[in-house]
Amino acid sequence: MAAGKKISASQTGMLRALPSVEEVLESPELTTALAEYGHRLVTDASRAVIERRRESILAGDPVDEDSLAAGSIAAAAAEEAGRIQSPSLRPLINATGVVVHTNLGRSVLAAEAMRAVEAVSLSYSNLEYDLAAGQRGSRHDHITEIIVELTGAEEALVVNNNAAAVLLALATFAAGKEVVVSRGELIEIGGSFRIPDIMASSTARLVEVGTTNKTKLADYQEAIGPGTAMLLHVHSSNYAVVGFTAEVAAEELARLGHEHGLVVTHDLGSGVLADIPAFKDEPSVFDSLGAGIDVVTFSGDKLLGGPQAGVVVGKAEFISKMKAHPMARAMRVDKMTLAALQATLALYLDPEEALRKIPTLRMLSENDQTLKARAGDLVAGAGVAVGEAGAVQLEQAASKVGGGALPLLELDSWVCAVSPVIMSVDELAARLRQTDPPVIGRIQKDRLLLDARTVLPEQVEAVAAAFEQVFDTEK
User: Fold this and answer.
1) Residue 309: partners with Cβ closer than 8 Å, 6 or more residues away
2) Could you give the strand order of the β-sheet that contains 98-100, starting from the edge strand earlier in sequence?
3) Which of 134, 177, 260, 337 has its CA 20 to 30 A from that of 407?
4) pLDDT tens, 207-250?
């Protein structure tokens, strides 16, 4: 309330009508909440509701006198306590068609990965204990061997995400020194994190070469000087420059760097380990290592299909130095991430099994017949619920890889297209976001599309139930 503004008689009366916290707590409306959520949380919620009512009165907002009653405040406090108690991070159904959806948690973990997480979480584990020697061990040992086996790299390291992996490489090999990178590769990743900002955080000095659309080997050659420590190649996984373009091949960059005694690093980003058609234009981990790159970094939760992590592979002399850097401890992953990643990578030992059991790979490689059948099931379930309140149709559409990978690639898919007539498509989308579990689709030409590619087979019935929740209220 503004200083000096007088309180009216009506406001004074309403303020006096507000009950005390003790009165609210004695209301029968809070009996169940007190038993479920505890005295402290319910008391805090009651106090907060009373304070909001007081602020509304002082601000001169319209206030229903019934809302000042102890019972009304108690009901609002019970609702607030329940909201605070309930987890805000919830499972939902991704029907957008974007497979690696950053906002929706990126990759869905394989069942084997989740079982591994549960096994090490419900008990103590040998996270940093050498069972054979009976003494302290290294958490890196649990994951290095399988990464080396899969990639053919000399050594490996896992940190908490790919940005951390790049930052650690810069800090280890180029702190206070120059790093040469193509101007066309100064990317921005999700959350406004930019390569130049990450470089500045490591105290490395950025040296840009080439132009936005063309960088030649001679550009790198001319930029190398006494203060140069690294050549950095950043894969532009979340955008594409097309037309009159040129970039230096990884083999050429590695050869140039080694001629000058420089560390050559490749920020690969997506982390392709599988051989599936959708990945044919995306550089793989094997490609980078085969080109002679010293340090290769990539994500564990994009095209690899595992948990959030940053994986570093390459030559032993360089990876060992990164492991020994003080910053590595701040970036280390916990036992759950290690367990999930190890279990995910174990599936890659059998390529066919990986395609079947890793959800990201399965979604990206599913055939037309399977997608059409699932979309048909979505149409059938939603159609019953919608009835005469709209039109529900089976249509062809295009899915996206997502996660900042293969931005130009569109995957043929099938969708359940819903055109409501008793509400707007925006209102339908909003209501589906409030169902349990929430269903997230995409709006296109005044229709809500539910893409079969990203709806898990076991979620089809839940989508139908969500439509029943929405349209039952309209009947």
Assistant:
1) 158, 159, 160, 161, 299, 300, 301, 333, 337, 341
2) 98-100, 390-402, 405-420, 447-451, 442-444
3) 337
4) 999 887 888 999 999 999 999 999 999 887 555 555 556 788 89
> Which residues, 6+ apart, have CB-to-CB distance to 284 below 8 Å?
272, 273
Amino acid 27: pLDDT = 93
Residues 322, 169: Cα–Cα separation, whole Å: 7
- State residue 396's pLDDT score: 96
Q: For residue 423, with 0-12 CB atoms within 10 Å meaning exposed, 13-18 middle and 19 or more buried, which class applies?
A: middle
Residue-level pLDDT at 279: 78
17: nearest Cα among 72, 81, 65: 65
Q: Where are the domains of the chain?
A: 13-85, 93-100+364-472, 111-354
Classify domain 111-354 at the CATH class level.
Answer: alpha beta
Mean pLDDT, rounded, of the chain:
91
Q: What is the DSSP string of 400-434?
A: EEETTEEEEEEEEEEEEEEEESSS-HHHHHHHHTT
Asked if residue 348 lies in contact with residue 354, where contact means CB atoms within 8 angstroms, the answer is: yes
Half-sphere exposure of 439 (CA within 13 A, CB side): 30
Q: Residue 169 is inside which H or E element, if any?
A: helix 162-174
Structure token pair of residue 119: 């096994």
pLDDT at 241: 57
* Cβ contact 100:402 at 8 Å: yes
Nearest Cα to 190, choosing from 109, 304, 106?
106
Alpha helices in 60-104 (DSSP H): 70-85
The model's pTM is 0.87
- 297 within 8 A of 266, measured Cβ to Cβ: yes
Distance of CA 339 to the CA centre of its chain: 18
**What pLDDT was estimated at residue 120?**
96
Confidence of residue 90 (pLDDT cuts 50, 70, 90): very high
How many CA atoms are closer than 13 Å to the CA of 381, on its beta-carbon side? 21
The pLDDT score that the predictor gives to residue 278 is 74
Q: For residue 143, give Cα distances in angstroms to 114, 116, 474.
A: 16, 13, 53
